[in-house]
Design a protein that fits this description.
5-stranded antiparallel beta sheet; 3 helices
Length: 155
């Protein structure tokens, strides 16, 4: 798939078009070209291999159903999922939505206005299992709230 520049006409829903860029750099370029400005509200990691960037688009939404985007990427910046909201979600609520059987995540997610996943997507709950893959040596890692591994503090 190739990503669409702001000068090309697309008939795709905007969230699908953003996801189809497949790479975070391309997605951010498209946001900048189309909307001029966005604000980074938050950046969360869950385990070693999942990142969520929470952005607010400024100015006219030009086809976006809401101003807040959550862009989920892998550790290499590959876009896995793009969600659109009217208001920023809480981290715990987002993960409760993704992994409803995990009792460590809680909260109420604002309505998902639009969602798109890509070929990079897989069930993120797999990253939270006790035997989840890690590039950190056992003595250098600790379990993160909800699951997944992170570098030990001071280690």
């Amino acid at each position: 798939m190739s990503w669409v520049t702001s000068r090309e006409v697309s008939t795709l829903p905007v969230v699908r078009e953003l996801a189809d860029t497949l790479m975070l750099g391309h997605l951010l370029d498209l946001l900048r070209d189309r909307y001029g400005h966005y604000q980074l509200l938050d950046h969360w990691t869950q385990g070693e291999f999942h990142h969520d960037l929470v952005l607010r688009v400024s100015g006219p939404l030009q086809g976006l159903p809401g101003p807040v985007l959550v862009i989920a990427t892998n550790c290499n910046g590959g876009v896995k999922e793009v969600l659109c909201f009217a208001t920023p979600p809480d981290r715990g609520a987002l993960w409760a939505y993704r992994c409803p059987d995990n009792p460590e995540f809680e909260g109420t997610l604002p309505p998902v206005l639009e969602r798109a996943v890509t070929s990079h997507w897989f069930d993120p709950c797999e990253l939270l299992e006790p035997d989840a893959r890690s590039e950190l040596r056992v003595e250098c890692r600790q379990r993160q709230l909800g699951g997944g591994w992170m570098k030990k503090a001071g280690g």
